[in-house]
Amino acid sequence: MNPRSTRIGIIGSGAIGGFYGLMLARAGFDVHFLLRSEYLAVQEHGLTLDSALHGQVKLAVQAYASAADMPPCDWLLVGAKATNNAELAPLIVQAAAPGAKVVLLQNGLGVEEQLRPALRADMHLLGGLCFICVHRQAPGQIRHQALGAVNLGYHSGPAGHDSAALVEAGAGLFRAAGIDSQAMTDLDQARWQKLVWNVPYNGLSVLLQASTTPLMADVDSRGLVQALMDEVVEGARACGQVLPQGYAAHLLRITEQMPDYWPSMYHDHVHQRPLELQAIYAEPLRRAAAAGCHLPRMQALYQALAFLDRRNLAA
Amino acid sequence: MNPRSTRIGIIGSGAIGGFYGLMLARAGFDVHFLLRSEYLAVQEHGLTLDSALHGQVKLAVQAYASAADMPPCDWLLVGAKATNNAELAPLIVQAAAPGAKVVLLQNGLGVEEQLRPALRADMHLLGGLCFICVHRQAPGQIRHQALGAVNLGYHSGPAGHDSAALVEAGAGLFRAAGIDSQAMTDLDQARWQKLVWNVPYNGLSVLLQASTTPLMADVDSRGLVQALMDEVVEGARACGQVLPQGYAAHLLRITEQMPDYWPSMYHDHVHQRPLELQAIYAEPLRRAAAAGCHLPRMQALYQALAFLDRRNLAA
Known about the structure:
The structure is a homodimer of 315-residue chains. Chain A has 315 residues and is of the alpha/beta class. The first copy, chain A, folds into two domains: 7-185, NAD(P)-binding Rossmann-like Domain (Rossmann fold); 188-314, N-(1-d-carboxylethyl)-l-norvaline Dehydrogenase, domain 2 (Orthogonal Bundle), CATH 1.10.1040.10. Chain A has twelve helices and ten strands. The first copy, chain A, has helices at residues 15-26, 39-45, 85-94, 111-115, 163-176, 187-207, 212-217, 219-238, 247-257, 264-270, 277-290, 296-314, and strands at 7-11, 30-34, 47-51, 55-59, 62-64, 73-78, 96-104, 124-138, 141-156, 181-183. In chain A, strands 1, 2, 3, 4, 5, 6, 7, 8, 9 and 10 form a ten-stranded mixed β-sheet that branches. The longest helix of chain A has 21 residues, at 187-207. Chain A binds chain B through residues 204, 207-208, 210, 214-215, 218, 220-221, 223-224, 227-228, 296-297, 299-304, 306-308, 310-311, and chain B through 204, 207-208, 210, 214-215, 218, 220-221, 223-224, 227-228, 296-297, 299-304, 306-308, 310-311. Chains A, B: Belongs to the ketopantoate reductase family. Chains A, B: Its EC number is 1.1.1.169. Chains A, B: Pathway: Cofactor biosynthesis; (R)-pantothenate biosynthesis; (R)-pantoate from 3-methyl-2-oxobutanoate: step 2/2. Chains A, B: It is an enzyme of class 1 (oxidoreductase). Chains A, B: Pfam families: ApbA, ApbA_C.
């Protein structure tokens, strides 16, 4: 793989899109960033990364305010919120070279199913789960606190292609940029695995206005995190996804070792942006219930968050 | 019953103690109020009630800063928080005439069991469940928005007494003061019944910073209230208390017809007072679990509140 001849488009260049796009650009890939509110700042000052693992990185980047101005991209990484997919679909299609690979770097279930009908038949769709502590500090400025791995899986695309090879190629892009990346044989399983983290921490950060360190330090909130994780594992199993033995305990340990972290849903709530409740809560609950499995704590958390989200957006 | 010859002591004269004590005093009973922080204000200005049902009531009352100064009382109504019972027990004993009847006007389970060992053997202990929307507006000033009924049940006392007659006599006091009051044959059942209201509304008012009207207006929070009610009914049944058919639906209707109301737990949280989590959540959960019944939503709510309460008191 020649980085310079691999053209990558970043759709939604917030914390996730900005971080991975910048790392890929730094590794020599031909990266093009589609921006909205941050376009002028990034056009003028480039992107800045303050990373606990990679140090300070500042790069002038190829920034666009319109997808129509972007060259056709072989890979498109979508780092925008899942709540915006309907609106982003035409821009993704516009920036896609024939046979392009679109990677949804989003949490939750059902995001590919939602986007797929809006893509062209020649386009491949993959999902990516990011295990990373990163947030946007200011326009074009990204703070990376810990971790970084991306797990990729294949969703759909034109027949006659080796999907495993495509996923491996995607993982190869990230690895070439110094990022840990695993090809997953089952995207659905990868998505359920990631939910084991997102369901407790994203929701409780909003509900209890608390970051990971205090949530792990208190015996009751820690017990609630664990009980929610167990429910997600149970929901996955009901949907045919048996997660690795001890996976929830593994995530608890990782989170305890992480620096104190405010999940992205907390930032969304504070900035009065809609929460990704559909993909992270409603769709998993729906699928589990359809399989005869009820997850009462997760449903209670979802109902509480739905109330808060509605009130927050109405304010 | 001659009101003037029935001496009633009010221990903890906040919203609940103040309201019922004032109504009894207005009806001619010989009522003595033990106060702490509000003593000077009440001593000087008396008690003021602004009631949607009973109008404006202002009375000079017999106020005390110390239980040692109170005359021996035949009835003692305890309106203080259940979190203070250990500390209140010696004051209750001090103000009790021989054979006194102590009525705990508190929510939750296990409050009588906690207080009983600190009382004298000649004293009777009853529990009272107040269905009322009332709060303290300022020292000595009580605002009564709706309802008012008290359900009484017998807990324990010296042998050789007709406990049903004692409970009926207690209900008679309240009725003589124009307050609806029912004698319950089973205090435990009365306490479980009241929990069907307290568990959802008290906790969610703190967790979601929301009063009853918005909680009932939103489809998700209403669904959560209902699911929590159903769990309490299930816990009661596991503990041998079959609540009246349709009781939860009845409380939902009543709450929808009430004026917008902030439960007392919300006020406790805002004023950084400890929440009554032990009596309202921990003890019912413990009893249900001992009967093999797990109430996951209620437990999740308890864990979330325990986290918030601890953080609030540490702040």
